[in-house]
Amino acid sequence: DVETVKLLKAKEGGENIQISLASRILDRTLRTIHVTSNSLNVNCLKDIAGIRASLDVLSTYLGDDFTDNVRRFKALPKCLEAAKHLCSNSSRSVIQSFLLKQLVRYDPNGIDAVKERCKREEFKWIMPPQSEEQTKSPDTFIIHHQNYHTVREALGKAILTSNVDDLNIVIENLQAQPSVRSCYVLLALFREVTTSFSHPNGEDDGIPTRILGKLSRYIEGIQYLPNELKGLAGNFLTNFENANGQLLQLSSRQSSNDRRLIELLVHFLVVMKCLPHRLLQPLMNLAFNPALMMNAFIPTMPHDDGPEVMRAIENASGMLITYRQPKWYECPNGHRYVVTE
């Protein structure tokens, strides 16, 4: 395509020419693109190449200096409007994702900075609807502070850019023990991947299968992650679709309270599995082996007066002339009682 080649060469020339060419290509593709076509042809490939080149150029003008760029380049508003119309069709969500990916790629402050910038009226259409739903739901895992936030942001960027190499670098550079890294990775997976299944049309507009496959292979390659936790991570990627039970499965039909309860359960599960501690053993037993706690004393639980009552009755019975050792019974509900003469 002659215009696309001109645009690629214009990157080394004047910026006015560059943005004007990008605007012209997007206008052309708006008229010629056929979203209902199931086969690729030369014209379709030409449109794809033009769109990619144009959005790549456009994304470099949508930074923090956007207001200044609008004043400097008269074609920029028209180019942005053409991109908006191109992405307005729900069947072209891949185009919207590509633009978002380029914005993240060129922003040194990462995906959070892009999300913040996309709150502007001119850019609201760039963020997919499921991202807005996730923003409305506060991240309860943020109590793990900066390291977790760093991993979550890197994972979000990896999902957008289809590049797990940067994610691996971020995790490897964390100043944390392997068990703590595992905790951050699992919580970030649940937050960035599993919660997407709870959004309306989550299965249709969610994370592409190709990216989920990349994440799955990456998780399998994490040496410090035990197999049990790899299985849990795999369930996070599939929303527990292949699990024995769907207790922790998220759905758009659930209430916010139900989803919050699942978040709490997941947080408890991940912390117990990744960060075992002697002081947490009673909680682990309650969750994973409650039978062990039948006769255990848990701090703050009410004092059991049963043994004292039993001794008092036995002492009182011993004062009788016709003394017989009292026999204690227990009803089906666990209440003890005694039958005396």
UniProtKB/TrEMBL annotation:
GO molecular function: ATP hydrolysis activity; ubiquitin-protein transferase activity
The name this protein goes by in its record: Uncharacterized protein
